[in-house]
UniProtKB/TrEMBL annotation:
This is MalT-like TPR region domain-containing protein. Residues 1-18 have a biased composition (Polar residues). Transmembrane segments: none annotated. GO terms for biological process: microtubule-based movement. It comes from the Eukaryota. Pfam families: TPR_10, TPR_12, TPR_7. One of its GO terms (molecular function) is kinesin binding. Belongs to the kinesin light chain family. GO terms for cellular component: cytoplasm; kinesin complex; microtubule. It is found in: Cytoplasm, Cytoskeleton. Residues 1-23 are annotated as: Disordered. Keywords: Coiled coil, Cytoplasm, Cytoskeleton, Microtubule, Motor protein, Repeat, TPR repeat.
Length: 307
């Protein structure tokens, strides 16, 4: 899955109670980033909207760096929630402001461009997303260096776009490079390494390299730390096993994913409904039609709209 970068704010000059409020808002921005990464998107959104209102009270506008940071981070939350149109609007505003005030080669501008490319990718606007993401990779290599974590994240996003475009050979090349570099640069067990494992495994599956793909999925599964990561890796491995006709294994994993996600996030969370949808597909493929029907009726009865 593509990665969306959060922004952090440089400390502002000190000035009594106003400075204290600015610091509190920066702390809330950082907390919201943690909540977003943990899948607690409703909490993160509430917190960020509170921060936006407070910044407006301070007289801050889109011309202010810290206002742009909060807008960017809210866009990341909305993107995670599947509210792509709202997220795209915010990310376009942030990118336009960054390009105007900082120029295209500033790291904040590169991050904003990456985030807009990601939300475009999630909407299937690949013709616009691909050249933008290629530019992000090129600029990030130039400005940050090849081994910088944000460069590697951008490379992973490009690999995801190429996969969606069915450019499998190039997608494999890019995804392998990103994984190799992440293994070298990041600490063992870092969640972004798990993301690279998932991306490469998805490409390898499309290219018929199933043994290597399964090994990567199982490595990702073993690396999961947070509940969100555990649910994502469980679902990813299950989808792979289902694609290979190993329905009983896939069903067992997805039952675990649905239970874990429902307990952690509730039945209406996007992660839960995605796992439930995957489980329904496996039950259908496994010839368990009554179970599949019961699950779909349960989803409808809970008011869960499967994306």
């Amino acid at each position: 899955m593509a990665q969306v970068s959060q922004k952090t704010m440089e400390p502002a000059p000190a000035s009594s109670s106003t400075e204290r409020l600015r610091k509190d808002l920066a702390t809330k921005d950082s907390l919201a980033a943690v909540l977003t990464k943990s899948g607690r998107w409703d909490e993160a959104e509430t917190l960020l909207r509170e921060v936006l209102k407070a910044r407006e009270t301070l007289g801050q506008t889109i011309a202010d760096e810290d206002m742009l940071m909060t807008m960017n981070n809210l866009g990341a939350v909305l993107n995670s929630q599947g509210r792509f149109s709202e997220a795209e609007t915010l990310h376009r505003q942030v990118l336009e402001a960054d390009e105007k005030s900082l120029g295209s080669e500033h790291t904040d501008t590169i991050t904003s461009m990456n985030n807009l490319a990601d939300v475009l990718t999630r909407q299937g606007k690949l013709d616009e997303a691909e050249p933008m993401q290629r530019r992000v990779v090129a600029l990030s290599k130039q400005v940050r260096g090849l081994e910088h974590p944000e460069t590697l994240s951008a490379m992973g996003n490009l690999g995801d776009i190429l996969l969606r475009q069915k450019k499998y050979e190039e997608a494999e090349t890019v995804s392998r490079e990103a994984l190799d570099l992440r293994r070298k640069v990041l600490r063992e067990g870092h969640p972004e390494t798990a993301s690279s494992l998932n991306n490469l495994a998805a490409v390898l599956s499309k290219r018929g390299k199933f043994d290597e793909a399964e090994a990567l999925h199982r490595e990702q599964f073993a690396l999961a730390q947070t509940n969100l990561e555990k649910i994502a890796s469980t679902s990813g491995l299950a989808r792979f096993l289902s694609s290979r006709g190993r329905y009983d294994e896939a069903e067992s994993l997805l039952q675990d994913a649905v239970k874990m996600s429902t307990e952690e996030f509730g039945p209406n969370h996007p992660t839960t409904r995605s796992a439930m949808s995957d489980l329904g597909d496996v039950l259908l493929r496994n010839g368990k039609y009554q179970g599949a029907e019961d699950l779909q009726r349960k989803i409808l009865g809970a008011g869960v709209a499967v994306a």
